[in-house]
Amino acid sequence: LMSSGSNQLGNGYFPSLDLTLLSTTNPELNPKIVIYPNPTTQFVKISAPENQKFNVILFDVSGKLLLEKKCTANENIDVSSLAVGSYIFQVIETTSLKQNSYNLIKK
């Protein structure tokens, strides 16, 4: 049981935690940049208003690096060898270093 106004939770003691949001220094990409198809079975593409160049980094949910690749907009990125599941797909624009992360679902 949790008593109000204390750090007591059940039978254990938890010191107060500082849960302030950490600031980010990486600006986000243009919101018109999307990855598709998502969910996917074989490949994914990056849709962008201009023919930009990107660094793509793919992680599993535990943070293990699975893929790191340079590509351009609308280029096929092969994900057919991945197991069914959820992945973190990070897209970094090569000149501005702006980045977005997406949840990629492999069917």
Note the main attributes of this structure.
107 residues; mainly beta; 4-stranded antiparallel beta sheet; 3-stranded antiparallel beta sheet; 9 strands; globular
Structure, explained:
It is a single chain. The chain is built from no helices and nine strands. The protein has a four-stranded antiparallel beta sheet with strand order 6-5-8-9, with no helix packed on it. The protein has a three-stranded antiparallel beta sheet with strand order 3-4-7, with no helix packed on it. Strands 1-2 form a two-stranded antiparallel sheet. The mean pLDDT is 81.
Shape: globular
Instruction: State the end-to-end distance.
Output: 41 Å
Radius of gyration: 19 Å
Strand content: 35-45%
Helix-strand pattern, N to C?
EEEEEEEEE
Spatial arrangement of strands, main beta sheet: 6-5-8-9
Structural class: mainly beta
Helix content: under 10%
The count of β-strands is 9
> What low-confidence regions span 5 or more consecutive residues with pLDDT below 50?
none
Can you count the helices? 0
Provide a brief overview of the structure.
The protein is mostly beta strands and about 110 residues long.
Describe the protein's topology.
Elements: E1 8-9, E2 12-13, E3 34-36, E4 43-47, E5 53-60, E6 65-72, E7 77-78, E8 85-93, E9 99-106
Antiparallel strand pairs: 1-2, 3-4, 4-7, 5-6, 5-8, 8-9
